[in-house]
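User: I'm curious whether this sequence folds into something compact or stays loose and floppy. Could you predict its structure so I can see for myself?
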Amino acid sequence: RESFGWTRGEYWFPDVRSLPGAIVMLSAVLYPYVYLAARAAFVEQSVCVLEASRTLGMNPWRSFFRVALPLARPSVAAGLLLVVMETIAEFGAVDYCAVDTFATGIYRTWMAHGSITGAAQLSSCLLMIILAVVVLEKFLRRRARHYQMTYRYRELPTWHLRGWSCSLAIFVCSMPILVGFILPATLFAYKAWQFGDPQSSELLKLGTHTFSLAVVASLLAVALALIIAYGKRLRSTPVMNLSAIVAGLGYAVPGGVIAIGILIPLVWFDQQLADFLQSLFRRPIPLLLSGTVVAMIFGYQVRFMAVALNVTDSGLARIRPSLDDAARTLGASGARTLMRVHLPLIYGSLLAAVLLVFVDVAKELPATLILRPFDFDTLAVRVYQLASQERLAEASTGALAIILVGLIPVILISRGIHRSRPGSSFGALDNSI
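Assistant: Here's the prediction. I'll summarize afterward.
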């Protein structure tokens, strides 16, 4: 417009602030949920299964669609389910694009109309929708199982593309990275260089807070998800299955609603505990949990348990039950079987779960704003404070810092996922048990 001297109405450009614009924006941001889960599944597959399909006359494409993709279905479905829940609970992007969703309706009902009851009713409807999606995915899978047929691992074959197929593959694989990372990061770097945050000296402390919270929350979430998923594997009762589904529903609820839902019972418990300790020690006792980092970590577990649980559960779903039976015949307990057999096999899936939860916690805003202690900000809070004051150029420094905080674990964990093929684990399986 500036280059050609155009004014409003003299040119046409797609309306970004629209439903298609929101779809493109969220697709560019959320595709790593499916990518990381699917990549971990493909890396853990056996090349012997693919070679068996080739001996039956399948070409590489047909072998992919008939063998490799069905084996990876639990992980792909888990990633898709996370995308669905994240999209339904998304507020900032859809609000900016002027798209009315449940998340924007809950926020307006709560903040603009002051009706907590109405917001709770909308949140309940949102939970019912997510529950229906989860049940539908389980129903479509039904009794289908996606186990590995063999555990003799070798390196996956490499197919060298040439000509137009090579160019098309490079273009398709580069577009998500270009739109979802390179262009935004370049823009943030330019804005930060030209303007910058006037309090950039505080970014190191904010980055330390963000990184510490993300590490603790992601490791704890994966540990709890492993316990839930493995307990469901050992005793797959309707109660266990329903408990696992309920534990993962928090991801579809906006962070602010979860924070309020946590804060109310937490404050009540804190008051009861403070009264008890005061009567015991005869001195005033402050609240111990409300407004502390512990409350933040607890809120992150409720919010992001579905991320860790879906990826971990899909990893365990690919392990044949015969391995559990073999471990028991060798005298291994359930805990020892988990440590010696299952963990090496789902190592890539666990790393993917840690990475996804880490990134989610690093950029979480609503729950952090409500549950954080006084004078304990994160990078996301700093960016929100500047953006709410229309200081977008200055907010670019904090946004770039969030990218840098998440980039290091992304690189390290991605390398770990690539190296997680457990070929060496099977040769010593009997000795390990």
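Summary: Residues 167 and 173 are 10 Å apart (CA to CA). The longest helix spans residues 163-194.
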